[in-house]
Amino acid sequence: MTAEENTVAPETKAAGAAEGDGPEARDGKADATTESDAAEADAAESYGADAEAAGEDAEETTDAAAADGRGKKRRAGKAWAVVAAIAALLFVGSAAFAGAMMQPYLADRGTAATKLNVARTAANAITTLWTYTPENMDTLADRASRYLSGDFEAQYRKFVDAIVAPNKQAKISNSTEVTGAAVETLDDLNASVIVYTNTTSTSPLTKNVPSLKYLSYRLFLKRSDNRWLVTRMTTITSLDLTPKV
After folding, report:
1. Residue 4: pLDDT above 50?
2. Which of 51, 171, 186, 229 is 20 to 30 A from 100 (CA-CA)?
């Protein structure tokens, strides 16, 4: 029994030694486990640091993009404000320029309209004063008075009263055609106009052979209650163009 027990005991010890259950083996395993855990911890810490850095970089990139977008919006807003200001200045400038140009244009149009009115009044006055027949001689002064004023109206009426009877007796017809009229001077209240005419007279006493005359007159007009009236008239030229029989 003693011999067998001694034989088994070394095998058991050997088996235990072979399996690595000794203190040194356990210490090696513990050291290996500790080093592995430390490596994993270092890796995790490094990954966390990298992730944090990546997050910070991404946040900085986002902030930069947002800031750039706000900057672009501000610049765009300023650009539109400048464009609007320039457009407003151009509009005001163009309106002022148009107004400055319109004033003399309107003044010129007003002057032209006044001249036309004055010239027409003078032409109508001459036509009425020197156009008559034996049948309407009695009303000639009244017809002409609408164009005349002051002393000149009285003078013309006196002249007509003097020729009514002889002209009616001779059956004289007088026709005056205005060939041209030009305003010579013009201001707010006064004007002078030159009128060119052809006048034809007929009478049975001359066998109805027409008497032709070319006459030009200078008429002086004055404005009264928005009307232009003749206050004086002078003869500039008088040419007798009657053919000799």
Report:
1. no
2. 186
